[in-house]
From TrEMBL:
Region ranges (Disordered): 120-141
Lineage: Bacteria, Pseudomonadati, Pseudomonadota, Betaproteobacteria, Burkholderiales
Coiled coil regions in record: none
InterPro entries (UniProt xref): Cro/C1-type_HTH, Lambda_DNA-bd_dom_sf
Signal peptide range: none
Species this chain originates from: Roseateles saccharophilus (Pseudomonas saccharophila)
Protein origin, superkingdom: Bacteria
Protein name: Transcriptional regulator with XRE-family HTH domain
A Pfam family per the record: HTH_31
Domain (HTH cro/C1-type): residue spans on this chain: 8-63
Length: 141
């Protein structure tokens, strides 16, 4: 279950709204709400989030929590085109092993990600991005 799925269920229950009622308020099918809550569907569109925030009397804190949950529920990781080969290899390894990671391993990885950045030594800095040269066409003779 994703963070969004979990939060959607909690918000719906907190505001005492059934799936069918919420679906009607939002203009979606009840089956879509159900699929979101059990995690079959990925995070919803911005339009859905806006409709949800308007349909339920959410506090500013609940609205922030909703946006955070959508972000944390993304199933994709996209690397920038100029990412280093090490970045690509790391993401590939993570993708292969993530589904079998234990809660302890996830906590350890989270702790590493939360470590402060003490500056990057010069030999570990990423290489500067190589700029493409424009092709020069030869003048016809």
């Amino acid at each position: 279950m994703s963070p969004f799925s979990e939060l959607l269920y909690r918000l719906r229950c907190r505001h005492d709204v059934r799936q069918a009622e919420l679906a009607e308020k939002l203009g979606y099918e009840q089956s879509y709400i159900s699929a979101l809550e059990i995690g079959i569907k990925g995070p919803p569109t911005e339009e859905f989030v806006e409709r949800l925030a308007g349909a339920l009397p959410l506090t500013p804190e609940e609205r922030r929590e909703l946006r955070t949950a959508v972000d944390e529920s993304s199933r994709k990781l996209i690397l920038e085109g100029d990412a280093s080969p090490e970045h690509f290899r790391f993401v590939a390894r993570l993708r292969r092993k993530l589904h079998s990671a234990t809660p302890r391993q996830l906590r350890l990885m989270s702790e590493i990600l939360d470590m402060p950045d003490f500056g990057v030594p010069p030999h570990e800095r990423p290489l500067p991005r190589i700029k493409r040269r424009r092709t020069v066409r030869e003048a016809p003779m």
